[in-house]
Amino acid sequence: MKAPPDRSGAPAHLVIESSVVEGLPAEGALLLRMSGNLDAHGAKAWSAELLGHLRRADRAGLRPVLDMAHVQLGGAAVLRTLSETARARTGRPDLIVVRARPGVREAVHLARLDGVLLYATLDEALRELARTATRVEELPAWRSQITDPLRPSYEDLHKEVRALRARLRTAPVIGMAQGTLMVRYGLPDSGSAFRVLREASQRFNVPLRVIVSAVVVARPPDGEMWFPGRRCLPVPRLRHLGRGGRDPRCRRQMVDAVLHEALAIGRAPAGYLRFVDPAVNALVLETHHGCAETFLDHLMRGRDDGTADAVARTRARRVSVPDTSTDALLSDEYRRALLTTGTHALQSIPVLNSAGSCTGVTTLLWPDAGHRPTGAQAAALGELAADTAAWLSWYHRSVLLDALEHIHRTLSRSAL
Questions:
Q1: How far is CA 367 from the centre of its chain?
Q2: Kind of pairing between the strands at 345-352 and 319-321
Q3: What is the dihedral angle through the alpha carbons of 54, 9, 189, 205, rounded to the nearest 10 degrees?
Q4: With contact defined as beta carbons under 8 Å apart, do 345 and 324 qualify?
Q5: Which of 129, 220, 266, 344 has its CA 20 to 30 A from that of 106?
Q6: How far apart are alpha carbons 407 and 402 in whole angstroms?
Q7: Residue 134, pLDDT above cutoff 60
Q8: pLDDT digit string (tens) for 296-347?
Q9: Phi and psi angles of residue 401, each rounded to the nearest 5 degrees, phi first
Q10: Does residue 124 carry a pLDDT above 60?
Q11: pLDDT tens digits, residue range 169-210?
């Protein structure tokens, strides 16, 4: 996925954000995420805005996909607009609608609209796009110039779909952060808030999802400074992560270093690292190595019940599974994902902050049943987890708060 959300003049009561999804066999898709209230009064303006997005998709050779999960009202208005839009697109590929609310789904189904396809989930729609796009002889003429040698691999497809899932999970938090800034600083629209968030993300090299999560959970500012009296904190002494000239302000570099060190200590061929996102109170995949695509797909679906890392987070202690085929701790779905990708033993090591709360989990995977780290390896993995907790705490209290302070200064000046 690429290209930041596009807010090109959507009506104030309804926002349409567009993102390009690449990596599908033979064609890409333009995901149009809609949010807000749609009524009869705004249907005409929304229809014109939607057609503008669809024309851009057609010119770029992209398949439009409408995500209507956050359209709040107006089944009749939606139905009328979709009907008019479908008629205007006669001869073009069907309009795909995903995650529509029950009233809209039922109305579209009963109306039997030609040129509109309904799917319950985005995954289902993408699978159908991928399936039909692989049949080259049935590709519509408007996209037939894309031939087999230009198709990405299915590994690329998996990566793009995972990125899309991650983006969709982040979208509600981005919306909450935008709304928070709009109310707090009197911004005219969500686009203004997004531009400030994106600029802070780029300036401080902090992922956007981390910035927006911090905006949502941080206490609101009460004065010229968001965090008055804050002092510059020294970088903590790190036994494992302090080697190799790593820059502690570079989150990606440090995250990759955590997993690299864990794999080396545990002599594991595969593993992954997840941190807790405080805005959604869930583990989020940060980095991985040696994991099969199907296993990563399972992780990205966000079904944590019965996973070793979720148990390690809840219990705030490491979880060892010497035989994934028999351990009752694991859910059947997680077990199947492990076994089908050749993992027969694992260990999840929680990252605990100074208060004893889990802020992340490192999980190592081995192909041989019965494998356990030695005592020395277990001790070193514990030291690495302590290093990770110390760095993460410093990063949140230094780099991340610097980014929030920058947002506050920028928007406070613009509000004057």
A1: 29
A2: antiparallel
A3: 60
A4: yes
A5: 129
A6: 9
A7: no
A8: 888 877 667 889 999 999 999 999 999 999 999 999 999 999 999 999 999 9
A9: -70, -30
A10: yes
A11: 677 888 889 999 999 999 988 888 999 999 999 999 999 999
Phi, then psi, of 351 in degrees rounded to 5: -100, 115
pLDDT higher than 50, residue 138: no
Encoded amino acid at 64, one letter: P
Pairing of strands 62-71, 95-98: parallel
Three-state DSSP state, 287: strand
CB-count burial class (<10 Å; 0-12, 13-18, 19+) for 147 = exposed
Helices 75-88 and 102-111 meet at what angle, rounded to 10?
50
Q: Are strands 116-119 and 14-21 parallel, antiparallel or unpaired?
A: unpaired
- Give the residue carrying structure tokens 């190799």: 244
Higher pLDDT, 100 or 321: 321
Partnered with residue 352 across adjacent β-strands are 358
The pair of three-digit structure tokens given for residue 411, joined into one six-digit string: 């928007």
How many angstroms separate the CA atoms of 387 and 341, rounded? 30
In angstroms, rounded to a whole number, what is the distance separating the alpha carbons of residues 387 and 375? 18
Backbone angles phi, psi at 137, to 5 degrees: -65, -20
**Residue 131 confidence (pLDDT):** 57
Question: Once rounded to an integer, what is the mean pLDDT over residues 266-281?
Answer: 94
Nearest alpha carbon to residue 34 among 44, 23, 19, 22: 19
Are 246 and 252 in contact, with CB atoms under 8 Å apart? no
Mean pLDDT of 63-80: 70
What's the predicted TM-score (pTM) here? 0.63
- Quickly tell me which residue has 């024309």 as its tokens: 55
Are the C-beta atoms of 18 and 6 separated by less than 8 Å? Answer: yes
Q: How many residues does the chain have?
A: 416
Averaged pLDDT, 205-216: 93
Structure tokens, 21:
């999804």
Measured CA to CA in angstroms, residue 140 lies from 129, 133, 237 at distances of: 13, 9, 60
